[in-house]
Structure formats: C-alpha cells, structure tokens
Write a structure and sequence with these properties.
By secondary structure, the protein is an alpha+beta fold. The protein is built from nine helices and ten strands. The strands form four sheets. Strands 5-4-6-7 form a four-stranded antiparallel sheet. α2 packs across α5. The model has no long low-confidence stretch (mean pLDDT 87).
Length: 353
C-alpha cells in the first residue's frame, strides 16, 4: 500500500509538469506525438488523433514529445517552425505548472492543518535568546534581515547560515511593541549552536480565504527558499552524501513518515487524513524541487533549452539543430551518470545505513 502512495505522489508531480508542456503546446498548435507518464516499457497506451498517451513502468519521470522538437520539420505544426516566443512558453510551462501545483496544494494544506506561526512558546533560561530579552509569547518577524512567517523559517535560517555568529532578530512583544535584539547563539554538547527557543502546540488556522491564499503563497515561497538554500549548501560542501536523496531516498523517507503516521494516529479516519496531508506536503516539496531543478541552465533540462532559445531571441537567428542536439546529448549523458550515482547513494543510505 505504501509503495502505491509513493508512486502516486511522484505521478502527480510529474503529470503536472508534463501537462504544462502539453497544454501550452496544444494552445500554440504544436503537434504532440506522445504524452507519457513514467519511463521504460509501456504498461498502457492509446492514441487519439496525432498523440499517443502512455503510462510506463518506471514512475521516475515522463515526457511530452513534440513534432520537430529535436529535428527540423517542414510541418507547420512542428515545434521547430513556431516562433521563439511560442517555444519559450512551451518549455517554461512545465516548471511553471509545478509552481502552480505547489500553490494549489499549499492552499489545501493550510486549510487542512493551518500554519506554524513564528510565536515563541518556550525560552531556555540558560539560552542565548533569554539573555537577549526574548520571551515566551514573542512573535519573530525577522531574522538576519529576512522576514519570517513560519517558525520553520527560523530553524532553517540557523541550519543554512553560520549559526555561530550573532544574529539580529526582530520580535513583536505581547503588548504589540516591536523590538530588535542581537542574539549570540550558544554551542551545545553536540557541537551545534542554538538560540534556545522552541515552539510547541498546534498550528494556527487562517481566518478567511484571503489569509489562506496569503499563507499558501508563503508556504510555496518557503519551499522555494529551502530548495535554493539546499542547492547552495550542495555547491559549497555544506551537506554530506547521506543528506542527498534521489527518488529511492525520497520514497524511503516518505515510507518512514507513513509508518510513523500509522503508529501515532488513533483511528482509521485520523490515519487517512494525516497520510493525505503528508502526501500533499510531499507533493509541494517535490513539485517545487522539480520546477527549480528543471530551470537550471543545464543541457537536456528545460533550463538548458530555454538558454538556447534566449540566445536565439537575442541573435535573431536559430542555433543549428545538430549543435543543440549534440550539447543536449552530452548533458543527457551526464545527467544519466548523475542519476546512477544518486541511485546507488540512495540504496546505500536506505538499506545499509
């Protein structure tokens, strides 16, 4: 049962990405030869007009194959014969739809379980925050010059920045006054530096549709910021190999959460609701990650193809198809090597750690 839920999460995220390419291609009268969810041998397929619709055995990707996408074509409905603007819109639509999906699911998540307001509920009397004058009941508005909407943002700030250095924090006191303090985190026995604050209790429900949508935008933005922070840490050596996960690692982590939900829920209804909310949360995380990763200017990814299209728009001249195809082939080969390395890293972390 767990594996079905994991595949469903991957399938939803991939479907929305490829559907973005598909629907914008159709809107621009570009012939789509195949719309596929999954990779490898087809489990099920059918053809309607010029498009073959496929469901394939490996739930780790998908594609929207268009006429004239990788070769020249004389057909007026081919991708290569459309304007550079139309082609840019088609390629950008995949990542864009991932962000739309993340926003939609964020609305549902906020409605379902509220948000973790950045209100401090406990302050350690031996901690750095206490010495700086932060009290239980204070709401954190900014940390290190960055606005805060969720308590998670305080935690992730301490994770991705040098937590040993003093940090400026703006708080709203219980009486409504705004106060700026400088906190010098203290080192604990585990070697990490902490502010000495925590938040306990249930999430806060939003009041009205307007506030729900506002916090849904904040939720989506949180995951965008978290993804960029993670990428920065990867390139600067701030993460270990065990912290990097591919599809197998993500599936293993999600499986652990499902099992934890089953253990902690008291009724069947509560179990179902909590699993659905966790699935939505993972869909948001993965959708934002897929959108951002695909926008990176790497050959064979959407971002790499957009880079070629922007160059074409500036030059007002098409880049020779064979040259672009050669670069994309090299990029695809390197991505395959990376996927294999990540796959074996996942296997090691999931089964042998």
């Amino acid at each position: 049962m767990n594996i079905i839920l994991i595949i469903l999460v991957f399938g939803i995220v991939v479907f929305f990405h490829e559907f973005g390419h598909f629907i914008v291609a159709k809107a621009n009268h570009i012939a789509v030869t195949e719309f596929s969810i999954g990779m490898g041998p087809a489990i099920f397929s059918f053809k309607k007009k010029e498009t073959k619709y496929s469901l394939r055995i490996l739930p780790i990707g998908g594609y929207c194959m268009m006429l004239g996408e990788n070769e020249d074509s004389d057909d007026e409905n081919s991708f290569s014969n459309k304007s550079v603007l139309a082609r840019i819109l088609v390629i950008a639509a995949g990542p864009f739809f991932n962000f739309i999906l993340a926003l939609i699911f964020s609305v549902i998540l906020i409605i379902g379980c509220g948000y973790d307001e950045a209100k401090v509920s406990e302050v350690s009397e031996t901690g750095a925050a206490y010495e700086a004058g932060i009290e239980a009941g204070d709401t954190i508005l900014e940390i290190g010059g960055k606005k805060v909407h969720f308590f998670r943002e305080v935690q992730i700030y301490m994770m991705v920045n040098d937590s040993s250095k003093p940090v400026d924090i703006v708080v709203k006191k219980a009486d409504g006054t705004i106060k700026k303090v400088t906190v010098s985190p203290k080192q604990a026995d585990d070697g990490n530096y902490y502010l000495g604050i925590s938040r306990q209790g249930y999430n806060v429900a939003t009041k009205g549709a307007g506030e729900t949508i506002k916090y849904a935008f904040y939720e989506t933005k949180y995951w965008v910021d978290a993804t960029f922070s993670s990428l920065r840490m990867i390139f600067t050596g701030g993460v270990k190999s065990g912290d990097i996960m591919g599809p197998v690692g993500v599936g293993g982590a999600f499986n652990d959460i499902i099992e934890e939900v089953k253990e902690e829920s008291h009724t069947f209804k509560e179990t179902v609701i909590n699993i659905i909310l966790n699935m939505i949360n993972w869909c948001i995380l993965l959708s934002v990650n897929l959108g951002i990763m695909n926008l990176l200017p790497v050959p064979a990814l959407d971002g790499g193809r957009l880079l070629f299209l922007f160059i074409e728009a500036i030059r007002r001249k098409k880049i020779p198809q064979e040259k672009e195809a050669f670069v994309n082939m090299i990029g695809f080969a390197l991505l395959m090597v990376l996927m294999v390395l990540v796959f074996f890293n996942d296997i090691k972390n999931v089964f042998f750690s």
